[in-house]
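Write out the 3D structure for:
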Amino acid sequence: MMKKCMCMPAKVGGLLVFVGGLNWGLVGLGMFFGGNWNLVTLLLGSWPKLEALVYVLVGVAAVMMLFGCKCAKCKACMTGAAQQ
């Protein structure tokens, strides 16, 4: 669950990581059940550049989540100093 005191880029990054994880889970289930359940391809397959951009953004969000956001708002949130 995302904390309320996080900055907007951290919230968007968390959402992108969630969507990416959900997409990969559906890709795996589709392989078991013989279908193509890749939502990014199903929604944006006719625009390969936009599809690639979505994958890059999810990857950047994952790296951002790995290292954490360094802004003052997120630092205060992680230390518990910000109570909202």
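The helical segments are 8-33, 39-44, 48-67, 72-79.
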